[in-house]
Amino acid sequence: MSNKVKSPLMKKAPTYSLRASIISILIGLLTGAVVILIVGAFNPLISLKGAWDGIRLVLFGVLSTGRDAAGALTFGFNPTNIGNMLFRATPLILTGVSVAVAFKTGLFNIGAPGQYLAGTTASLFLALSIPSSSVPAWLIWFIAFLGGVLAGALWGAIPGLLKATLNINEVIACIMTNWIAASLVTWLFDISNLKNMVEGNKTGYVYKTTYNGVATSKMGLDKLFPGSQVNGGIIIAIIMAILVYIMLEKTTFGYELKACGANRHAARYAGIHDRRNIVCSMSQRLITERYHGDESKKDIQEKDTEYLARSRAAAEYCARTLGWHRIECTAADANGAKTMRSVEDINAEILAELAGIL
Q: What is the pTM of this model?
């Protein structure tokens, strides 16, 4: 038996999660390749050679540079394809982050398409309606960006409120709001003056942001990936993903979200506002107040005193109920002196109690 000690990196939960994701992707690609081969084998119009070309394009299409004189596929660095891939990855990253935040709170947010439509619509209306002749283009872009964030958050708050207040299943609520958003957005653009009247063959489309001179800056990416649609949105998406990770893993608010996801009732017992966190996770509010705005300073102080008085018992209850995780609970005695007790310490106490019972 090997006594080789594993690297600490391999023991971390994110490593296992990443490995599982990579394996899942590989299994999906392998399954798709098998299906393509089967279709090519039984379809004379495709043939096995055509199926093999299709598999290579699925796996490495972003690096495809076309075909040579003999008709064979050629591969190499293709800046246009890579830039377009990054351009299309931007909304996927942002919507994926929104789903991940809700998932950490124990919610299955499939309302990302509706939130995406609401945010995009608000951004386009603001970007194309504010005249760039009187307002600086950078300010219009910033207003449109904030407007899109707010619109998406408000639309996501609808199923969040239904879940928090009426316990309506978020999946059903999200499906309904997705279709409502699709119909509402179509209607809004149909009655707006944003339809493309410049290009005769695109009257069913709205103007691009370049029409008002407020397109997202390329940030030099057009020089790295010439001929592609890539812009600075991919940089913003990556920054947002990093900020969300920091929020979830390094802040009290992120811990409260995960506590609600692990066990909502235990989190409430510990003094965490479970309803607020449910709404926040669905609306992606990354900046939130500690308490509601209509509470006075005296009310907040009274609630803090009550929380500190019961937080030691609440921390131990959370440790037992949320599971045997390597997390740290903040405990405080009645005088407010805060201490850090790891769940491993609490686990040792519980094991000692179990040993005494046995």
A: 0.67
